[in-house]
Amino acid sequence: MPITLTERAAKQIQQQLTKRGKGLALRIDIKESGCSGFTYIFDYVDEMKEEDQLFESHNARIVVKRDNLSYFDGSEIDFVKEGLNSTFKFNNPNVGNTCGCGESFSLKIPEESKENI
User: Quick check: helix, strand or coil at residue 89?
Assistant: First the structure.
C-alpha cells in the first residue's frame, strides 16, 4: 500500500521546501528512541538514492528507504496545529502502542524485522 499525505501535510512540505530554497522531498524514517521504542525523524532530500522509494500526494513528495517501507505501509501523514504547537501526525496502521506522552511508539512488526532499522 502507498503512503499518502493530507492536503495540509502536502502544503506544509511544499512551504518548507520553498522556504529552504531547494529540495526534492521530505524524507521520513524511524529510529530507536523513547520509552516505547521508536520515534519518527524527518529530513530534506535534495537527490534520490538508489535505496529510496518516492511517494507523491497533492503535488508534494516524501521519500522512504525501501528497507523501511513495511514500517510505513498504509500510513497517512497529516499536519496538525494544536495550540502553539504544529507537527506532522501519522495515522500508521503498523503502530502497536504509543507512550503516554505521545513521543514514541512500538511496532506490530516482529522483533527480527527491527534489526534493519
Answer: strand
pTM, two decimals, is 0.80
Q: What is the DSSP string of 10-79?
A: HHHHHHHHHHHT--SEEEEEEEEETTTEEEEEEEEESS--TTEEEEEETTEEEEEEGGGHHHHTT-EEEE
Q: Which of 31, 32, 29, 73 is nearest to 49 (CA)?
A: 29
Number of Cβ atoms within 10 Å of the Cβ of 19: 8
For the chain, the distance separating the N- and C-terminal CA atoms, rounded to the nearest angstrom, is 20
Architecture of the domain whose range is 4-112: Sandwich (2.60)
Strand ordering across the sheet containing 60-65 = 52-57, 60-65, 25-33, 37-45, 105-107, 95-98
Q: Report pLDDT digits (tens) over 22-62.
A: 999 999 998 887 666 788 899 999 999 999 999 999 999 99
Judged against a pLDDT cut of 90, whether residue 113 lies above it is answered with no
